[in-house]
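During data preparation, a discrete fold description was generated, as reproduced here:
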Amino acid sequence: MKNKKMILRLLASAAAILSIAVMFLGFRLRNGVTIRAGETEIPPHDVITYRQDDTRWANDTLGDSSFTMKSSGCLVSCIASAVSMESGTEMTPGELNKIFTKSNVYDKEGNVQWTAIDQMEGYAAQAYPRVSQQEIEQCLLTGHYPIVRVRVNAIGNFHYILIAGTEDGDYICMDPLKDELTRLSQYAGRVYAVRMVQVDA
């Protein structure tokens, strides 16, 4: 009888843990959209990659905030990559961060203000109202580079990566925390927001 009660307690505990895990996962994945690349191949070419923790700018702060490029510079690094590829002139995340700081692009928490970028001469920013495969691929086909918000390891903290093209039904991405190009499927193909910054070439 004691063994039976123990087994029942263990089963109840396991069920409770599983229920908590499912709720946690559901909470982490809310508002995300799972997308897969279409049939049209858009191969990436000469992708300029940057790491947010590069020692040349890792300790630079985002505007007047206490946040640094190393801790929170994924978005700026992605924008720098897009700007460099579109303009044909390399602009490092460190250089772009200085421009953004001077132009008051950041709020006090170090968050990028899209309207502030849009007001900068030579820059245009777009925050898409929804996540869709069509808009991402239209962006690529017109020579621009969509920046998407994902979760690290699919369920971790929010993180920004840049989509550089498509291959074998997957999106090829530049992740500012990795040395090599990645695939969107490595983040479970789940996207929480789409952004784009373009410059006058």
